[in-house]
Amino acid sequence: MATMSMIEAIRNAHDVAMDADERVVVYGQDVGYFGGVFRCTAGLQKKYGKTRCFDAPISEQGIVGTAIGMAAYGLRPVVEIQFADYMYPAYDQLVSEAARLRYRSAGDFTCPMVVRMPMGGGIFGAQTHSQSPEALFTHVAGLKTVIPSNPYDAKGLLLAAIEDPDPVIFLEPKRLYNGPFDGHPDRPIVAWKGHRAADVPEGHYVEPLGEAVIRRAGSAVTVLTYGTMVYVALAAAAESGIDAEVIDLRTLVPLDLDTITTSVRRTGRCVIVHEATLTSGFGAELAALVQTECFYSLEAPIRRVAGWDMPYPHVHEWHYFPGPARVGAALRETVEAV
User: Fold this and answer.
1) Is 213-336 a CATH 3.40.50.920 domain?
2) pLDDT tens-digit series, residues 80-97
3) What is the CATH architecture of 2-200?
4) Predicted local confidence at residue 318, as pLDDT
5) Could you confirm whether 129 is annotated as catalytic?
6) Is 15's pLDDT higher than 80?
7) Which pTM was predicted?
8) 179, 194 contact by CB (below 8 A)
């Protein structure tokens, strides 16, 4: 075991995968010599050489397009899009090529590639460095979507993604990169930067895609969330005094529907929390699934707590994020509903 931040766990996952399988190649903007804008690939080029870890031009379409070709050829590329906001030029490659390759070729070709992207706000990066576009990927059949909330999961899920035979979108919450987050959006990142978050095995292990984890057991209401909002939900449950069960989804596609429905049928109430905008966010799909699968067990309307329906508000970033107060209010309203 070693104590690692999420950045260190992600870097270690790359190292373990590259050491075990020479087909794994890592590239993207500034990921080679510099080690990535967040340093998630630092040292890999020096250890494995410029043919295994290298820099790419500023062309997201080119980065993802070449990765698809490499994957079809038999390699296992892991590419980094510097910020999730930059992925839009590459979206057609993901939708029209990567996601459909297995189906279009009747199984003759697969696309074992991983696209890593830092997501979400918290670094005062304004509109083009702070978005949470996870719902855009979950809509595309053929893509898997993963969002870890801690270093242990980040490493295990990334290794599982690298070993998966199909394309995986791996979204990394920036507010969790450097250490633990206490759930309060009004406490800037500098207050906890440098802290370490978890003990992580140094060797190989995987966390299965499609398995959620209950972070807090409870009987009054089920909270469905992922990424940074896991800590917001935990803080809201603790500060409100409500016996909430907090489920960290970890992977949105495939989704662990069994864990969700088992919890909601027992509690009879459900609150969904995510950082992305409310309208057409992934929470809408979760609400629809809970309504369909748990209708006769529900004792209150399903509530969603999310970001505002507006372009990312740089100046009001810390008010945009759902915080313990907003989530706690939703928990109380849900529990008190008759």
Assistant:
1) yes
2) 999 999 999 999 999 999
3) 3-Layer(aba) Sandwich (3.40)
4) 80
5) yes
6) yes
7) 0.94
8) yes
Q: What is the pLDDT of residues 271-305, one digit of tens each?
A: 999 999 999 999 999 999 999 999 999 999 999 99
Every domain of the chain and the residues it spans? 2-200, 213-336
Instruction: Check for a shared fold between 2-200 and 213-336.
Output: yes
- 107 Cβ neighbours under 8 A, 6+ residues apart: none
- Tokens, residue 128: 């083009």
First to last CA, the chain: 48
> What single letter denotes the amino acid at residue 223?
V
Give the number of other Cβ atoms within 10 Å of residue 109's Cβ. Answer: 14
Residue 180 has pLDDT above 60, yes or no: no
Tell me which of 14, 129, 195, 314 is the catalytic residue: 129
User: Residue 193: which pLDDT band, with cuts at 50, 70 and 90?
Assistant: very low
244-248 and 213-216 beta bridge pairing: antiparallel
| Residue 245 near residue 218 (C-beta atoms within 8 A) | yes
Amino acid at 245: E
* Residue 250 in this model has a pLDDT that exceeds 90: yes
Residue 208: what pLDDT? 97
Average pLDDT, the chain: 93
**Distance of alpha carbon 162 from alpha carbon 145, whole angstroms:** 13
Cis peptide before 201 (omega within 30 of 0): no
Report the alpha-carbon angle 115-83-46, nearest 5: 65
